[in-house]
């Protein structure tokens, strides 16, 4: 009989995590109210256990009553927590509460930050420098090429490419981020266990393996029209700026750009033909003060050039020894080092920028003689 690896059980949700989930589920308590209560009481547990008379001073009667009932036995709540436990049992799945050190600092700048984030993949990408790349779902062939090429260059320079997993420009941006340094973040408008649109299922799986997939919505949430404009605020807040590649007048991408301006982020736009409807939104942004860009260098120059972290000195010798003097792919190197390919991408990029490695076509790396 073949040996089997031992199964490592995931840790069940803690009492604190369950309190965060309870607070998120209280009827009538939206994110703005929840944040106000947290500022008043400090923790979700303190909010849920606050004296009834104090809650009545701060909330409408229906809200206060709903909070007072939140700790009562609830079979639906228990089933919901069991579903989250089961989801978290798969490696590389994470539940980040608003007070978690790994929770993205940019999202805390929002007036209505999500109480919980469901993350698949590399949560470290949420803490590093990023740029959002957005645009039309019905993009032109040139727009798709621009999105992918810009995203690849930005990823190589150390920026995670953030987008919304929609068809068109979003999908092209994610592909570019993956073909660069494997650094892309998909902010979805469904639960993290649902993929929409279905045509991007393979892309979503690749993002989950190499990049990061993020949702503020509870597991099981199906596509709802109101969720997609709402998630745009997360795309803006996660990034240093927003690049709009193609957008018609009234496009949802313009909402993302306006939200970015409200947060003090930079907005960039690629100009297009005056005869194309897909240029109207970008031209409107340019008239309103967005930065015109013709290459990724225009963005990197404004942001201060390459922003990738320095190589980890403890890792450099091992990686250079693993690659030797023959070209090798990231997958081969990952196997030699006993690490995941996605984990390796950041250090490969850092060594490339330091002039120690050269990336050849096809994702092959070789040492630079010297």
Describe this structure in words.
- The protein is of the alpha/beta class.
- Helix content is 45%, strand content 13%.
- It has 3 domains: 73 residues, DNA polymerase, domain 1; 181 residues, Rossmann fold (3-Layer(aba) Sandwich); 55 residues, Arc Repressor Mutant, subunit A (Orthogonal Bundle), CATH 1.10.10.
- It contains 17 helices and 12 strands.
- The strands form 2 sheets. The chain has a 9-stranded mixed beta sheet with strand order 1-2-6-5-4-3-7-8-9, with helices on both faces. It has a 3-stranded antiparallel beta sheet with strand order 10-12-11.
- Strand 4, helix 9 and strand 5 form a beta-alpha-beta unit.
- The chain is globular, with a radius of gyration of 22 Å.
- The N terminus is likely disordered.
- It comes from Rugamonas rubra.
- One of its GO terms (biological process) is DNA-mediated transformation.
- This is DNA processing protein.
